[in-house]
Amino acid sequence: MAAQPFIQLDGVRKVYRSRGEEFLAVSDVTMAVAEGELVSLVGPSGCGKTTVLKILAGLHPHDGGEVRIGNAETAFDAGRDVGMVFQQSLLLKWRRIIDNVLLPAEILGLPRKASRERARELLAMVGLAGEEDKYPYELSGGMQQRAAIARSLVHDPKVILMDEPFGALDALTREKMNLELLRIWSEAKKTIVFVTHSIQEAVFLGTRCAVLTAGPARMADTFDIALPYPRQLDIKTQEAFGEYTRRIYRQLDMG
Amino acid sequence: MEELAEKARGYGLIILAHLAVILSWHLFVVWGEVPSYVMPTPAATVVTLASPDYHWLDNTLVTAGEIFGGYALGVLFGVSLALIFSWVRILNAVFFPLFVSLNMIPKVALGPLFIVWFSYGLGSNIIIAFSICFFPILLTTARGLTEIEPDLIDLVRSLRASRWQIFTKIQLPGALPYVFSGMKVGAILAVAGAVVGEFIASDKGLGYLMIQVQSTLDTAAMFMAVILLSLVGISLYLLVTGLERICVVKDARLG
Ligand SMILES: Nc1ncnc2c1ncn2[C@@H]1O[C@H](COP(=O)(O)OP(=O)(O)O)[C@@H](O)[C@H]1O
Ligand SMILES: [Mg+2]
To answer: Which of B145, B147, B212, B231 has the maximum number of C-beta atoms within 10 A of its C-beta?
Structure first.
């Protein structure tokens, strides 16, 4: 790990307040992510993973602890340096794929021609060359998610936040997208925080894995995953892979 | 090529179904020996067009004018108010529930009142048509403007999108299918509104003509008036669906 982490969460706490009631969603999350890392954030449904991601995206204020993004070498601009991918592709039905990918660039007012060029390159990178002028409904769920990934990269952000991006896909497509994501990550060289409730997916993808307990989220464990990249699906049969997944199951009181 | 053939078959079936209805109507009258003051044959109905006393063209134009006038006002005010409500929260909080209640009033029952207020004629019939088609357009447009994926809002807010950007890039195009859905419902209601106005009090229009020929038992003319009214309604409806086809991508269209 680099000397200074790029993302640092320290004892982060989050309380939701609605209609006079308080709800502690995240009680104590501490983690550090180095630049260029792909960290999986795994935990049971409803434990507060999305909440942590939204705090990182600057969408929710936190109520305690500290959140720092950026370090001495690399500055971080909260409005420009975050790309997001959700479980639903959230592509705009009325826009062609290329124009969907361009949405962040439009919002940030980036130069049109260069952005369009970049969007084309990104679509090629995620395997959607030739699909630029189609509408979202003409693409399969997996292809829509590829487009959503291209969209998250178009403004060249430093951090990509992914919230169960493959959770709505069928098992086979999901595995394929895992491989694709690793390839895209190695090409785009981004820092990625990948939220999932799939233990297998967390271990397969991450350079490191942070395990959250059932809500209100507390950091249960965080460890490096020393499986070499490029990873192929057959690593799932290796003993080391099994060790990592068992470690997470144990943390979640399931093993 | 195949698509074209399918389309042709579709239209062919539509025409066939209509012809079948007209034929059954004819046979019903002829075989059932139905007296012509109860139900004329299709041919007898069309023949009434030759009768100059009925001023078909003038009466149709008057009614069509009322329908289009009331409808245009309904679309203009319905859509504008919905837009204003989406921008000015306090107005929305105060007036929206009020409009929901007003929508419950059977608008045609207000007809006699409008005629007292605005005297009979074109103006009050336009207002009746307006009042009946305005509400569904307002309510569905308002709904479309609020129906946005919360995650999508988060996505653009993470890029610090302005309220105006969210409005123009997401809210407005997202609401368009709803606008058209409201407009289609409104088109049918506007026709009913104008005719009811003419029934109550008027000296021109197809509704007026129907009341006139009712006393002379010229049922064929009444049938013809209903057919012309339907044609005016169908033209309006086709205009709206044509516009929808141009403005709204296939997948986003609502029923
Ligand atoms: N805006 C909100 N207001 C109140 N409670 C919320 C809000 N968002 C999430 N929660 C609650 O916080 C908890 C954690 O939610 P979330 O972060 O979405 O979990 P996860 O993504 O791990 O499934 C849940 O119990 C959820 O009901
Ligand atoms: Mg979640």
So the answer is: B145
pTM tops 0.90, yes or no: no
Looking at residue B196, its amino acid is V
| Burial annotation A91-118 (CB, 10 A radius, 16+ → b, else e) | bbbbbbbbbbbbbbbbbbebeeeebbeb
Report the residue from B151, B165, B250 with minimal CB separation from A90. Answer: B151
pLDDT for B111-167, tens place per residue?
Answer: 888 888 988 888 999 999 999 999 999 999 999 999 999 999 999 999 999 999 999
ipTM above 0.90, yes or no: yes
Helix spans in A79-128 (H): 97-101, 103-108, 112-125
Nearest atom, ligand 1, residue A49 CA? 22
Sequence-ordered list of residues with C-beta below 8 angstroms from that of B34, at least 6 positions apart, any chain: B28
Answer whether A107 sits within 8 Å of B169, measured CB to CB. Answer: yes
Cα separation, B252 vs B248, in Å, equals 7
> What are the extents of the domains in chain A?
1-76+189-255
* Lookup: tokens for A65: 């602890």
CATH of domain A1-76+189-255: 3.40.50.300
Q: What is the DSSP string of B105-167?
A: S-GGGGHHHHHHHH-SSHHHHHHHHHHHHHHHHHHHHHHHHH---HHHHHHHHTTT--HHHHI
